[in-house]
């Protein structure tokens, strides 16, 4: 004689359906794994800019990468992230470095073109790194900010064969056609390039 098959209860079916409907990002462990998979610099936190604020690309195949461009935000870390995530702002950078502890957020993948230089040719050929602070407030340029930014710049230069010198690691003010002054006169270029080369 065959035994009657046991079927799951309605409650169990509903629980199963609810779990199946959950996005993968809400399941334990998957969010961190997904974030770790998308950053180009180990240890960076993925904080994506609005897709309206950068151009999808396939660099360095589509465009060679020749420069790292150093910026200063003229805003706080959190306000800068909000600006990058606002689709109406039409601005982004690949990375943002926090003043207090050197924490690095990645906002645009390196193969994509961030809108940071104010010059399309330089946008296509560079990685943009924003640093929290103001050009006239050197206290924002902490040891942690310099050191972590230098590690980031060194890794980018190594990855793409960019020389670790002042001809290729430039300030926003050095981009042709821009009226920006960052990172400003208080940025210690000698120290920064030395840190990049020893990172």
TrEMBL record:
Pfam families membership: Amidase_2
Superkingdom field: Bacteria
Principal EC category: hydrolase
Domain called N-acetylmuramoyl-L-alanine amidase: residue spans: 54-184
Catalytic activity, reaction form: Hydrolyzes the link between N-acetylmuramoyl residues and L-amino acid residues in certain cell-wall glycopeptides
Annotated keywords: Cell wall biogenesis/degradation, Hydrolase, Signal
A molecular-function term among this protein's GO annotations: N-acetylmuramoyl-L-alanine amidase activity
SUPFAM superfamilies per record: N-acetylmuramoyl-L-alanine amidase-like
UniProt signal peptide: 1-36
EC number: 3.5.1.28
Family annotation (InterPro entries): Amidase/PGRP_sf, Amidase_domain, NAMLAA_amidase_2, TAT_signal
Xref: SMART domains: Ami_2 (SM00644)
TM helices/strands, residue ranges: none
BP GO annotations: cell wall organization; peptidoglycan catabolic process; peptidoglycan turnover
PANTHER family with a match to the protein in the record: N-ACETYLMURAMOYL-L-ALANINE AMIDASE AMID
Protein's name according to its UniProt entry: N-acetylmuramoyl-L-alanine amidase
Species of the source: Streptomyces sp. R35
